[in-house]
Amino acid sequence: MNRNFRTALAAVPLVTAAVLSGCTVYGPPLATRPSGPGPSSARRGVIQQPPAAGQPVSPLQSTPAPVAPAAARHFKLSPPAAALVSIAQAQERGGNYGLAQQTLERALSIEPRNPLVWVVLGKESLAAGNPAQAYGMARKALYLAGGAPDVQASAWGLIAAALRAQGRNQAAVAAERKAAELFPQ
Predict the structure, then answer these.
(1) CATH number at 79-182
(2) 8 A C-beta contact, residue 177 and residue 171
(3) How many other β-carbons are positioned within 10 Å of the β-carbon of residue 37?
(4) Is residue 97 within 8 Å of residue 127, measured between CB atoms?
(5) pLDDT in tens, 3-47
(6) Nearest CA among 142, 87, 88, 133 for reference residue 115
(7) What span, in angstroms and rounded, lies between the C-alpha atoms of 137 and 158?
């Protein structure tokens, strides 16, 4: 063998070790600083008590600002997805569940992260006699619907219906309760 080839062969383990050492995790990421009155008191372990009613607040003693509730998210279907959903609903009314499912899957390909499409597809699966698939689609909708209580309530309602169709009545009652808590009617 020539000398350059042997040198290159000898360097392969060293290069591999260097590359792999860059991939090593040395420990958990650093913890974030706790939020609160200030970093100095948090480090010393001092817990500030809120001022009693009627007591003046020192300008050096800050109170945490009130946190505004997060704005609820609103989901709606895009015009192409809405058109496909309405076509699928007409197909379902005609008893053509297979074609309705294909149409809804096209809507899902347009908006895969929209929980409304997952709920409609889950309802169609339930109507077609597949409660296990409807349950999975409702769980996916619930996952995507964070911050939208109306959509979460619809997903919990679909979960309850799928559980009831499977004969799991106690679990269905619990799911119905969650739906009612999120969106009382």
Answers:
(1) 1.25.40.10
(2) no
(3) 15
(4) yes
(5) 554 554 454 454 444 444 444 333 344 444 444 444 444 444 444
(6) 142
(7) 9
Give counts: helices (H), strands (E), the chain: 8, 0
Choose among 22, 8, 62, 67: nearest CA to 39. Answer: 62
Q: What is the pTM of this model?
A: 0.61
* Eight-state DSSP code of residue 108: H
Instruction: Kindly report, residue by residue over 151-168, the tens digit of the pLDDT.
Output: 999 999 999 999 999 999
**Residues 6+ away with beta carbon under 8 Å from 75:** 114, 115, 116, 145, 148, 151
- Residue 116 and residue 108 in contact, taking contact as beta carbons nearer than 8 Å: no
Nearest to 50 by CA among 40, 62, 41: 62
Would you give the distance in Å from CA 54 to the centre of its chain? 44
Please give the radius of gyration of the chain, using alpha carbons only, rounded to the nearest integer. 28
What's the one-letter identity of residue 62? S
Q: Where are the domains of the chain?
A: 79-182
- CA atoms within a 13 Å half-sphere pointing along the CA-CB vector of 111: 24
